[in-house]
Amino acid sequence: MRLLLSNDDGVSAPGLEAMAKELEKIAEIRVVAPDRDHSGASNSLTLTRPLHPVRLANGFVAVDGTPTDCVHLGLNLLYPDEIERVISGINTHANLGDDVLYSGTVAAATEGRFLQQPAIAVSLVNYGQHHYDTAARVVREILQKKLPLNVSPRTILNINVPDLPYDELRGIQVTRLGHRAKSGNPQKILDPRGKVRYWIAAAGEGEDAGPGTDFYAVRHNYVSVTPLQVDMTRYEAFSELSTWLETP
Questions:
Q1: 54 bridge partner residues
Q2: Per-domain boundaries in the chain
């Protein structure tokens, strides 16, 4: 098994280190990750300047770009035709519900959608205990399952792991994305030169967070696995939209 690992928290993030340490037990790994935190970068590519990959002493490659840049370079330049699957994470916080729209962690996995094996994005639902080892073990055990996963290769598995010791997990649930309430308003501050600036507020709490959702699963100490797809077409709106457009 040959895996490309990346993240959005940066090449020195503890979650990436924990993932690499655990997965090198079962696979050949290559690591290409941003040289700094790029949380919230979503699927952005850097198109205004060239990128500069740097190989570090531990063999990881740091890139002065986004998570998507990193996986793009890894698959198409640094390790072409070598990689079977992309694993992104372990993110330092949850990626639940609407978070996937902004997440650089999910974006890095999404860039691996052209491979034969479904990509994986993994996040720790952080309670301040930092059990990255738990999340890493969950991913290793999923990768070691003997039965092939017969889903479209363009499926991305979004995994959220409660921040608990492994033995306290209650199991794994396949979930749908829940939805968050609207976030708070940006917070106005003044910088030292008196200029007005704004901090983006924290994401809203889970609003659609009942049974079957990723929110509900992790709140009850289950690992949440949500299959994602790139196709964002709302097919059920076709008929109504067509009728509306055809009406004078």
A1: 62
A2: 2-180+206-246
DSSP class of residue 213 equals B
Omega before 83 within 30 of 0, i.e. cis:
no
Cβ atoms within 10 A of the Cβ of 161, count? 30
Q: Which of 145, 38, 142 is nearest to 87 (CA)?
A: 142
Pairing of strands 61-63, 119-125: unpaired
User: Whole-model pTM?
Assistant: 0.92
Q: What are the distances in angstroms from CA 7 to CA 89, 104, 162, 204, 232?
A: 5, 7, 18, 23, 23
Cβ distance 166 to 134 under 8 Å? yes
Domain 2-180+206-246 class? alpha beta
Type of residue at 210 = G
pLDDT in tens, 15-65: 999 999 999 999 999 999 999 999 999 999 999 999 999 999 999 999 999
